[in-house]
Amino acid sequence: MILLIFVGCADIPATEKILFDFEEDADLDKIHWKCHTLFSLSDHHASHDAKSLRMELYPSPYPGVTPILKDNDWSRFRSLVFDVYNPHENGIKLTVRIDDQKDYPEYENRYNKGFVLEHGDNRIEISVQSLVTSGTERRLEATTIYRLIMFLVDPPVKTELYLDHIRLVK
Questions:
Q1: Are the C-beta atoms of 65 and 152 separated by less than 8 Å?
Q2: How far, in Å, CA of 95 to CA of 116, rounded?
Q3: SS3 letters for 117-132?
Q4: Can you give the pTM of this predicted structure?
Q5: For domain 18-169, is the CATH number 3.40.605.10?
Q6: I need a surface site. Which of 52, 74, 105, 150 has the fewest CB within 10 A?
Q7: Which of 113, 57, 56, 44 is nearest to 83 (CA)?
Q8: Domain boundaries, the chain
């Protein structure tokens, strides 16, 4: 008698969803480009795989990066996480804006929070549960996240930062 035992290979659910990892030139097409910013792939300061996004942010009101989101439903995740390398000796305040509406809501009706980037590696983690608007403290609708923007406010000089491994974590 032959006894066969099958061990099923169940799909192991992913613990994170990578939104942007900046490994190929095509990744630069997944960013909204605007004046006073330059983006390029870099072999330096990658926190995941081989490359990072080098950002040159010039003096202007709000230079930064706006990745084009393909997945608008963040409700299955615990946190948004990304890594930023600051090559400057001084701390730099990076503001993160998240919108849950297609139109461009006013400051009071979107998530806005500043994070001080110290010299070197910085990991930013934002709990999806903490996404509330700046004015009314309304909780953002995690199933309809339309916009993620990371920017500086009126930098007095050109500022270089390296961004990598933007992901949602369960």
A1: no
A2: 9
A3: ECCEEEEEEEEHHHCE
A4: 0.90
A5: no
A6: 105
A7: 44
A8: 18-169
